[in-house]
Amino acid sequence: MLMPTEPCQACYWSEEVVDRSKDIYLRMVDIISQHYSYDRTINTLQSIIRDIENCSVILARYFLFLKLYRETKDIFVSNFVTTDIEYFFGNIRSIYDLLQFLTWDLWKRATKINLSKNFHDMTKRDPDYLTRKYHLPEPLIKYYIETKDFFDACCKIRDSLQHLGYDIQVVFCFEDGFALPKKNPWLTSFLTSSFDIWPEEKIKENGLVSVLALISSISQKLLKNIDTFSESLIQSIQPLIPISTKYKVFFRGPYTNHLLKLEDYLEKQWIDLDN
Question: How many angstroms separate the CA atoms of 104 and 107, rounded?
């Protein structure tokens, strides 16, 4: 006898979201699944979804590390947080290059024209170049232009950590969260200077700012940007007839509930685990 089951870590088709506490609707996932369901495109989409889920894993680990610190008072728990910050920015870069590979694939199918497979190569070009060389339509060009500043900020941090010898020298541990020094130019200004997300009343003594706010803000902007990407894509490349006009594609992972709380995390910044 087969027992009814629910997805634990998977996409599913449904008229509406099944569980609003942990299921996510991203228009990009729905559009690719509905209108561009080629084998290679779907494989790329699955990789993008895994990287999005990795953002939720980093948030879940943040709270595990905070609980560990509260129980042990071991300041070296901060090393776990440092490692995750470095991984987080590499993961962001991975998502954008996967989005570009997806665009490369679909644009080549539609026009036989090869785009660069590197997202940074596209954002650094001026609109006239993109029009002249690749014959890109306005919605895609506009997407590259509007994404450039956010992508460049994340990319600069990733490159500083992975290629230029920069180091997150210190993360501070508190009962209500982990912190970076915002105002010390010799420590982490390369991490914090590009983001204005810490209101004065949320900054601790000595200019210490919330790591949770940093991860939440960037994750939130990323998800919004991914949906903007899907709109530019469907306006630029002729979509196939949708697989369904009744059902949409949602996805769920074991930690995706954290992605639904990004606004709350960004607003609070410091978390009392007892409440």
Answer: 5
Residues 216-244: b if buried by 16+ CB within 10 A, e if exposed: bbbbbbbbebbebbbebbbebbeeeeeee
Phi first, then psi: what are they for 82, rounded to 5°? Answer: -60, -45
Phi and psi angles of residue 106, each rounded to the nearest 5 degrees, phi first: -70, -35
User: Both tokens of residue 196?
Assistant: 């204005």
pLDDT in tens, 163-198: 666 778 789 999 999 999 887 655 566 677 778 899
- Name the token pair of 184: 């010390």
In three-state secondary structure terms, 11 is strand
Residue ranges of the domains in the chain? 14-164+213-268
Count the alpha carbons within 13 Å of 188 in the hemisphere toward its beta carbon: 21
- The structure's pTM equals 0.92
